Amino acid sequence: MGIVKSAIIGMAVILAASYFINRPEREIPKLPNTWWGRGPAKEEDKNIKPFKITFTKELVDDLKVRLNKTRTLQPALEDSQWTYGVDGAYLPIVIDYWLNKYDFKKREQFLNQYPQFTTNIQGLNIHFLHVKPKNHKGKRVLPLLIQHGWPGSVVEFYKILPLLTTPREEQDFVFEVIAPSLPGFGFSSSAVRPGLGSPQMAVVLKNLMLRLGFEQFYTQGGDWGAVILANMASLFPEHVLGLHSNMCIVLSPWNMLKMILYSYFPSLLLSAEDYHRMYPLSTRFLRNLEETGYFHIQSTKPDTVGVGLSDSPAGLAAYILEKFSTGTNPNNRFHDDGNLLKSFTFDQLLDNLMVYWTSNSITTSMRIYAETINKNYLKDELNTIPITVPSACAQFPHEISYQPPSLIKHRYKNLIRATKMPRGGHFAAMEQPQLLADDIWTSIAEMEILRKKEVKN
Ligand SMILES: *[C@@H]1O[C@H](CO)[C@@H](O)[C@H](O)[C@H]1NC(C)=O
């Protein structure tokens, strides 16, 4: 452990030093409305077209043939469960469900229960759910952009949507929710040229909201959704009324140094619970190494790994479901079934896989890593521009990493709330819709009180 710790300290000191030496005075950069479609930029088709998900007979027949032809998978080593990745002795149960029990017609209807649309933004056809409150008499309707990440999709939001669009007696507002598929994900088209990383996606999503007539709106996200909406809040504060995030992590050199200092003097700076969530650093660091191999692959060679995943539904299921297992609780890897059904149903998990399979988007979705984690991005430090809009963090105990408010505030300058949630993991909207919805309501109610005060002054 000594070596790991010294290596981390060394790295952090060098990074922090270089940061402070080169620290420029930041102006908010102006990102262009890049054309991501084929050919030269042209006039966008501004129409907003209704959209329905269809599982065509050809698609389903082909999928069934592939599922039925799955080769014999290797069972996990003795007593290893999911620690080497998905257990090949368990996956056939998922494949059998997909092939024989998943009701494609019914699930298609289920997925089409909310109004969906597409519209062209910067050459990309962007798909989104747009759910208005049914009965909002006497309530102000607030637009809320809610954003999924990888390897999720809009499917993550099917349970939380009614919780946000049904008025609550104690609040004088209700939400109108816009849930887009990220570019390259599901039914949104992908860029044809390099460069569409997280900050550029913030531009696309901001333009989508403007297209829909929302000059100002609230935002909520987890995973890449959280990263992109943090970028949106820092790049376009004039459009973002407030940010609610269930993945508030600030990875600046200064913060890395602080995390190491805290590890030496924890009791001075941290509560016992914060300590438990963050340390020992060596364990956290090794754990991150174990669970983030995919991150390195996707940041470098997404297209290569994409070939197998887009050609084999068993491969796609293994790759994505492993994330839903360990992302929900790291201890799930010690269970033969990855504890998948403890938090989700097969239908829910397969609905998400069907979004990737139907649209053949696994490869393009993984490119977000390569387009974000690269030299240009790190050089521009677009991920450290301060966020000045009111922000709230819902901190689920099994989230990939935890930072106390003192670290989050390094970037979130106007952090009004950080709530330690009682249970739940990385896919909070899908796993704990009620807890997440309650925290969104409470946080935005506080932001609305602030906003009313501001309007008065
Ligand atoms: C799977 O393949 C076998 C052998 O060809 C066939 O008998 C069976 O009907 C197939 N099952 C499905 C659900 O397509």
Order of helices and strands: HEHHHEEEHEHEHEHHHHHHHHHHHEHEHH
| Low-confidence spans | none
Radius of gyration: 22 Å
Mean pLDDT: 92
CATH class: Alpha Beta
Task: Label the structural class.
Answer: alpha/beta
Stated plainly, the CATH topology is called: Rossmann fold
Quote the distance from N terminus to C terminus: 55 Å
Instruction: Give the overall shape.
Output: globular
Count the beta strands: 9
Report the major sheet. Answer: 9 strands, mixed
- Which ligands occur here? 2-acetamido-2-deoxy-beta-D-glucopyranose
Per DSSP, the total helix count is 21
Number of domains: 1
Strand order of the largest sheet: 1-2-3-5-4-6-7-8-9
Proportion of residues in extended strands: 5-15%
CATH superfamily: Alpha/Beta hydrolase fold, catalytic domain
EC number: 3.3.2.9
Catalytic activity: cis-stilbene oxide + H2O = (1R,2R)-hydrobenzoin; 1-(4-methoxyphenyl)-N-methyl-N-[(3-methyloxetan-3-yl)methyl]methanamine + H2O = 2-{[(4-methoxybenzyl)(methyl)amino]methyl}-2-methylpropane-1,3-diol
Function: Catalyzes juvenile hormone hydrolysis.
GO biological process, one term: epoxide metabolic process
